[in-house]
Amino acid sequence: QVDVSSYKDPWEYGGDTGLKNLTASVKKLNNMSQSSVRGMDISSYTALKKAGVKYYDFDGKETSLLKVLHDNGVNYIRIRIWNDPTNEKGETYGGGANDVAAGLEIAKEAAQYDMKLLLDFHYSDFWADPALQKVPKAWEKDKNDTEKMKQNVYDFTKDTIKKFQEVGADIGMVQVGNEITNGMLDIMPDRSKGETYKDTWGNAKNAKILCGYLKAGIKAVRECTPKALVTLHLESMGYGKCSEIMNAWEQNGVDYDVFGSSFYQFWQGNSSKNALAGLQKIENLAKSRGKMYAVMETSWLNSLKDADGTPNVIGEGHANAKVYSDDPQGQVDALTDMYQTLLSNDNGLGAFYWEGAWIPVKAGWTNWKYNKDMSDRYGTGWAAQGAKGYYPDNKMYYNGQPAWGGCSWDNQTLFDSNGYPLQSLKFYKDSVSKGKEQIIALKIVDKNGKEVYATQYVKVEVGKTRKITLPKFSGYYPKNKNYNMTLKGTQEGNTVQKVVYTRTAAGPAISYNYRVKVTKKKYKLYKNFKWKKSKTKVYKKTYVAKYRYDHKNGNKYLALYTKGGKFVGYINKKAVKRLGSATQPEQGKAYTYGKRVKIKSKKYKLYKNFKWKKSKTKVYKKTYVAKYRYKHENGNKYLALYTKSGKFVGYINAKAVKVIK
After folding, report:
1. From start to end of 415-509, where are the E strands?
2. Domains present along the chain, CATH in parentheses
3. At a CB cut-off of 8 Å and minimum separation 6, what does 437 contact?
4. pTM reported for the whole predicted model
5. Ramachandran bin of 169, using left for φ above 0, alpha for ψ from -120 to 50, beta for the remaining angles
């Protein structure tokens, strides 16, 4: 019989929760190599060490956190960098107290174990995320001076990288900005006005300023550590949103290597299948832009319990907490599914587990007061008392009580609340099935060295060869028209190789997408650019010109299609008259008109729509409100007629009416 009188809940009082004894089965992943990014963000480590937190290996021996991670396959460390996370009294804001000095302490230790670093610049004094991107206090005076702000970004990035280099850090990647979906450095949507990310990245003025800041940071990275990969990081997994923001970067000439996302399964819905499909879609988006891809933040639950007195972001009752089991095996399963998806494409680098060692200073939720005191002193909790008045009250308080002190992530770590590793940590070593890899970036260029297609990435195991097929695309072909190529892995890391393509006579298909009318009879229609004539009669007919070709003979040709999408042929651009955009209706934009009119002529028909379906309504000599006017591609102007009560009547040629004053 068990004596329950002496039982103490380990989650309440900080005893052995049993998590470290739970087994977890890890399988080898076909594409997981020794070079795959198996990273972890341990930004809070310096603060935790100062507060006396200890970590252990699988033999129960106290040891350095970096050694435990290294011995179990973690090869990359992510460190967030804040400019000045202290108030005017010198008190810490908390959150790991991640100034440059705290990061350097981690870097020194990581260097002992030959671990690469990802430096994550927030360009803020505290948390920078999609909801809040505050300008560092020291830069506040310059925030309306774009040039000074760019210089601030450049100087801080460069100075910081140099300090990390001085302590022997192997900087493999630099993240310029953190979760910048809505903007950065205080250029953010005004929620009170209903603004969204479109008002930052979709606004030409704002996008130019933001991209200027990104380019300043990137310039510093390229100058200081040219071999490091530059990463831009969004928290969003929305395909359309990511694509639009990437468009802004592209239009403003932002030069980066890696597109990164935050991928938390519990925030992607309750279907792992759908979430992983979304992940694959975003990775393919990066591939289509010639970029590598990595998950910059991810995690899963080891339990639903709280171990430090600060409520967890994902706890008991959360709707999506059962996608995987809430134990070490669930963590392994989540990582396995994610990595299988990530590494299915050659542009997939890997992922970083977010704060996998952010455990309580003193385990047990009854020790909340102690943990709060330690956070106020060392910055070990997600926030500290020093952040009052700087960080919004709605984040600092819950039901009028302080919400800082501990960490809201202690049930997602790969260690138990007393610092002992969980079996899930072994994933990073036991899932590896291949040796070291070389990632070859194939730059597709013309004879002048100009890139003519998205960069292709190919992973080749060092010491081995791999046969690939080069991409086929309009307007160019590789030398000797041979699309087969063999690549050899000669060294670990990232290298660049140029592949020269020759331009065809017609050149590439340039997106055009206008409706056109063939107005000149003397130009021939061709089936192809071998000048085989088509018998199709196109004179005076209207088509969609999807593409334009700038031929070497000096002429421009249009590829004509029917409205139904059937290819018609190629014709000289001089043969046609451009009507309007293929994406816009033929009647054009609806312009507000708002005048009372009387139908003065019988000869004009009334139409139900612009497919010219006639209306039987008798309108001659009647009076209506013409709400809108349309300038149709056929050269006529039409009015949309409504009754006084607002009922739509039909469309009529503007010549049929007389305006009543």
Report:
1. 437-445, 456-461, 465-469, 476-478, 484-488, 493-503
2. 4-430 (3.20.20.80), 441-497 (no CATH), 510-581 (2.30.30), 591-659 (2.30.30)
3. 33, 34, 35, 36, 459, 460, 461, 462, 489, 492
4. 0.88
5. beta
3-state secondary structure of 546: strand
From residue 271, alpha-carbon distances to 278, 339, 352, 406 in Å are: 11, 17, 22, 30
| Pairing of the two strands 606-607 and 648-653 | antiparallel
What is the spatial distance between Cα 475 and Cα 452, in angstroms, rounded to a whole number?
Answer: 9
CA atoms of 51 and 363, how far apart (whole Å): 13
d(CA 261, CA 351): 9
Distance CA 177, CA 229 (A): 14
* pLDDT, tens only, 166-215: 999 999 999 999 999 999 999 999 988 999 999 999 999 999 999 999 99
For this structure, is 297 an active site residue?
yes
Question: Which one of 109, 235, 283, 297 is the catalytic residue?
Answer: 297
Tokens of 289: 């832009």
DSSP helix/strand/coil, 447: coil
User: In the block, which residue shows the tokens 């230790």?
Assistant: 109
| Phi, psi for residue 423 in degrees, rounded to 5 | -60, -20
**Residue ranges of the chain with per-residue pLDDT less than 70:** 1-5
Selecting among 109, 179, 283, 355, the annotated active-site residue is 179
Q: CB-hemisphere CA count at 13 Å for 11? A: 12
Q: Judge contact between 495 and 441, C-beta under 8 A.
A: yes
